[in-house]
Amino acid sequence: MIACVDGLTGFPKALETVFPKTQVQLCIVHMVRNSVAFVPWQQRKQVCADLKAIYSAATESESEFNLELFAEKWDKQYPSISKSWRSHWANIIPFFAFPPEIRRAIYTTNAIESMNSSLRKVIKSQQIFPSDAAAFKLVYLAMRNISKKWTMPIRDWKPALNRFAILFEDRLHI
Fold first, then answer.
1. Is 62 exposed, middle or buried (0-12, 13-18, 19+ CB in 10 A)?
2. C-alpha to C-alpha distance for 19 and 15, rounded to whole angstroms
3. How far apart are CA 36 and CA 81, in angstroms?
4. Which of 135, 136, 139, 118 is nearest to 127 (CA)?
5. CA dihedral for 97, 68, 91, 116, sign (positive or negative)
């Protein structure tokens, strides 16, 4: 229904091709990280606060207005930031069609990246697998161990799930 992706080129198009009904949302955390990658530490707090005004706006139009304010303030020093947000805007704005309880559930890919990182650590120690079954078994066992660490529920998941059930009633069967 919704796919939150990082900035990999072509990934949104591939998702839309394979899953045409899926709404693609860029990871806001990645957008912010990429935005401040070349900002000195002394100004990161200010830049992040101004970026927060963009992604935490109540509506798309308010967000666009905040992006214009951001550009007026920061484009002389960091023109690539507002340019990046504008070039990715089509995959940022789906976020604003959802109420706050869903936004909190879909704004980042960090949970998936954490899982992938843990899997890479396990697989890195085993460079050669005697069979495909052995590789699948290692991944399965690693996932069982990784999932034991998942003690925190997704923030505001129940209200988000209720809203998903309304928005996607033809595809979500609870």
1. middle
2. 6
3. 8
4. 135
5. negative
Task: Give the integer Cα–Cα distance in Å for 73 and 7.
Answer: 25
pLDDT, tens digit, 9 for 90 and up, residues 71-109: 999 999 999 999 999 999 988 888 888 887 778 777 776
Instruction: Report the C-alpha gap between 27 and 34 in whole angstroms.
Output: 11
- The count of residues in the chain is 174
- Per DSSP, 90 falls in state G
Q: Are 84 and 31 in contact (CB under 8 A)?
A: yes
Question: Phi and psi dihedrals of 148, rounded to 5?
Answer: -65, -25
Cα 63 off chain centre by: 17
- List beta partners, residue 24: 3
pLDDT in tens, 34-55: 999 999 999 999 999 999 999 9
Contacts of 126 (CB under 8 A, 6+ apart): 138
pTM of the full predicted structure?
Answer: 0.73
What beta strand segments (E) does the chain contain?
A: 2-5, 23-26
| End-to-end CA, the chain | 14
